[in-house]
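Worked example

This section walks through a single chain of length 129. The input is the sequence exactly as stored; nothing has been trimmed or padded.
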Amino acid sequence: MPFQTPSGIGGTGQVPDSTGTRSQSLRVDPTAIPNLRKTFSSALTKLDKEIELAITEIRVRPWAGDPVSSEAAERFNERSIDSGDSALSALEGYQRQLKSAMDALTEVEYQYRTVEGDNTGTFNKQGGC
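Given that input, the structure is written out below as tokens.
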């Protein structure tokens, strides 16, 4: 995944979508990175808890022990958890996107700091203030 910090101002990172096949560009003002990472981290923490809850607690069992409740429970579980387009799959896709965005922010911040450090070193060597 290529990352650039054009002219040491801002940052651009390629963030894969939930399938990992396409990518989207993310332009970020370097001063916004710490707050963005904090916001994404908070969202990811909440999402992780919800996914764990969905995996362990949301599955329903046939409540009346009859064919109708068995079919209803089966359909609910498939739509919520089991199928490829379930609610859980959507949450997991969102989780992957948040993680990718956080990774991109971390990389852009690292590159920005590297470029700034290089610029500061060059400026000091040239007799700057």
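What to look for: DSSP finds three helices and three strands in the chain.
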